[in-house]
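Follow-up to my earlier ticket, as requested here are the two runs.
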Amino acid sequence: MAILKLYSSSVTACTRRTATVLHELKIPFELIEVDVLSGAHKTPEFLKFQPFGQVPYINDDGFILYESRAICRYVAAKHPHSGLIPTDPKANALFEQATSIELTNFEPSAGKAGLPFYLKKLGWMDDLKDVPANLEILDKKLDAYEAILSKQRYLAGDTLTLADLFHLPYAGFVSLGSDIMTRPNRPNVARWYNELVSRPAWLAYQDGVKTTTEY
């Protein structure tokens, strides 16, 4: 069987999310580098496979799929033993609830706060004017996270799921310029966050995503 091919830039946020889940599942993949700074993701050839001109997309033995969360769900569904997508109806409902929390309550502010910190680290931008307002929004959202995580280890219960991993990379990027994820007034958020960013799958790509065929 052909190795999964990941078409993307090695340093983008959604590439990091996708590669982290691939690493968690020990799925070999080849990174096909896309030079987003030169606009390679907007070329006609790229748009044949990703009509929005965004990264990443995958080619899994001829099956093309884009959107990082969809890719992560697909590969996790192919490896149900991992438990990253619960199959019990109630557990799955709690998982879906948690994924919705990440998408609607976390990423809007965490992405807008964390991405500028990350882009500044890369030397791609130095405009942080919108960061304080988004950190303020995120701070209030994390109070709800504290309430949830005071009752269970992870967002969907006591087992790690994709819902937790989806918070990477923006949770990590926020921490490049703020202590908001580890403040003492939210010990359970800090516990949860520190566990996530300590996982080998996240640490593997601190210097950028790379082709990974051995684990």
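Run two:
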Amino acid sequence: MARALIHMPATAKRGEIIEIRALIGHPMETGYRVGADGKLLARDIIRKFVCRYNGEQVFGAELHQAISANPYIAFFTVATESGTLEFTWEGDNGFAHSEKANLTVSAS
């Protein structure tokens, strides 16, 4: 089971630019390393990250073997309305993990 950490404000003013930071615990094995038995270790990486704000994608990234273990992603979006941000990671071997966070937007 992966562990994700999301850091973002719980509240914002309409039109405010907010920073969102997401980190997920994952070993990210490239598939190029050799194990103790001399055989290649199987590739196991997160390949895709998507953030949706009230169902609309506001950020997405394709990840490759060069990404470090426990990938950290930071990005900005504009607070338009109160709602839910959903963060989804997908990877090799059927890996999938989602987290949700609420954002309350005020008029002023």
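The only thing I checked on run two: The mean pLDDT is 94. Let me know what else you need.
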